[in-house]
Design brief:
15% strand, nine-stranded mixed beta sheet, alpha/beta, globular
């Protein structure tokens, strides 16, 4: 819709509130606390304030409003290490658990805000944390093998024999994907057979809620969908993205079911996964995402989608996939963008941070560019390819805005690995 620009700005002003820890935060919490799922986004993977505000919001939801767990845009096996510390006290500290998170970009989950959240959850005995993502093909294989070795030699031998299909790739997912050009059948049948084997165990032994079997089944599911994901990468179209976001949505639903019919969840992921795809150009290009699928499956009234964005500052990102992270300058936003309007509004209100509740306002259906930065970033190209056409009133229930942001503080050295981004070309 091509509405009057002044009406757009007026709507933003009417729906804006200051965001302060002791004042604005309770007001924001009150708008989302009764939902079954609250999704907290980010417009970059390397902004300190996004992690800070998400942590503060998450702690309030876990402590005061009955939320059971946190699910994040991260790998299942890696987050299970952190979860083991939070829920069972395994390892010495959250920092120790974070040092075992090894897939690049490690700073997403090995940073000081996550460490603080994990230590708080451990101390307060509030909730658990899980990974929703699909990348961990080989780590998940090793997790399944570790479980079945302790369970039954016969089952372990059968599982290991099927997964041996991957042995020649040396733990390199990209090498496996490339091999499918010559051998399209790949290991598809083997990974499905192994998942079915574990599902039969659950039925036969009545272990539907046994935590270790649940973990093994989820890892086997990751292997199935990771194999599909890397296979779909060859097509270079929307299919790999959609496999990934469908897997994240399926995993979220499974965790909610496992936690009980009244369970509530907090989700952390990039805005491109959280903001409803139907309010962007994603839908025209055949893409779906986690936030939109959750609204469709769980009911819009049960899901709160919270985006995060900023105007200018610094961020942590890398120049290329697998490269060491750098503190980069986030340039001023484009003057035709949502961020620029929010910058002007924040300056007028004298508010370093604010939030908007745009849902249902017809004036905010006007399409505006909304910045999205991945883990791979070049500030010189910020104005090209980093703005998603967005109907704000449909994309989020709440949008948090920080006028000037700072780079995220990574807690561990970065391990450089991989040569092709699994989220090519966006890094989301």
């Amino acid at each position: 819709m091509n509405l009057n620009g002044e009406a757009y700005k007026q709507a933003l002003q009417e729906r804006a509130e200051h965001l302060e820890p002791m004042q604005g935060l309770p007001s924001l919490i009150d708008k989302i606390k009764d939902k079954r799922v609250v999704m907290l986004g980010e417009s970059t993977h390397g902004t300190e304030e996004f992690y800070l505000w998400r942590r503060l919001i998450t702690e309030r939801l876990l402590r005061d409003h009955g939320f059971a767990f946190v699910a994040v845009e991260g790998d299942w096996p890696n987050l299970q290490v952190l979860n083991a510390y939070i829920t069972r006290g395994e390892l010495e500290s959250a920092a120790h658990a974070q040092r075992k998170i090894h897939r690049w970009p490690t700073w997403m989950w090995s940073n000081y805000q996550i460490e603080k959240l994990a230590e708080w959850m451990r101390k307060e005995k509030r909730g658990s944390i899980y990974g929703l993502d699909v990348y961990s093909l080989f780590d998940s294989i090793q997790a399944v093998l570790g479980y079945t070795r302790k369970l039954s030699p016969l089952v372990a031998d059968a599982i290991r024999e099927r997964y041996a299909c991957f042995d020649r790739f040396g733990g390199d997912e990209i090498a496996y994907a490339r091999s499918l050009l010559s051998y399209p059948e790949g290991c598809e049948r083997q990974v499905v057979d192994n998942l079915m084997e574990l599902l039969r165990l659950r039925v036969q032994d009545g272990r539907a809620v046994e935590p270790k079997l649940f973990d093994a089944i989820q890892n086997a599911t990751v292997v199935v969908n990771a194999e599909r994901y890397y296979r779909a990468m060859l097509a270079g179209d929307e299919s790999s993205w959609n496999i990934r976001d469908a897997h994240m949505t399926d995993t979220l639903e499974l965790l909610l079911k496992q936690a009980g019919p009244e369970s509530k969840a907090v989700v952390w992921a990039h805005n491109t996964h959280v903001g409803d795809y139907r309010a962007t150009d994603m839908v025209a290009n055949g893409y779906v995402n986690l936030g939109g699928l959750a609204r469709e499956r769980l009911g819009r009234e049960n899901v709160a989608l919270v985006g995060f964005s900023s105007h200018v500052g610094t961020l942590l990102a890398a120049r290329a996939w697998g490269a060491p992270p750098e503190v980069m300058t986030l340039p001023e936003s484009r003057t035709d963008s949502l961020e620029w309007h929010l910058h002007e509004l924040a300056a007028g209100l004298g508010a370093p941070a604010l939030f908007i509740t745009p849902a249902g306002d017809e004036r905010l259906r006007e399409v505006r560019g909304h910045r999205a930065v991945g883990v791979v970033y070049d500030p010189e190209h910020d104005r090209r390819g980093h703005y998603v056409p967005t109907m704000l009133s449909e994309r989020y229930d709440v949008l948090v805005f920080v006028d000037e942001s700072r780079a995220l503080q990574s807690a561990v050295p970065i391990r450089v690995a991989g040569d092709v981004p699994e989220t090519w070309p966006s890094g989301f």
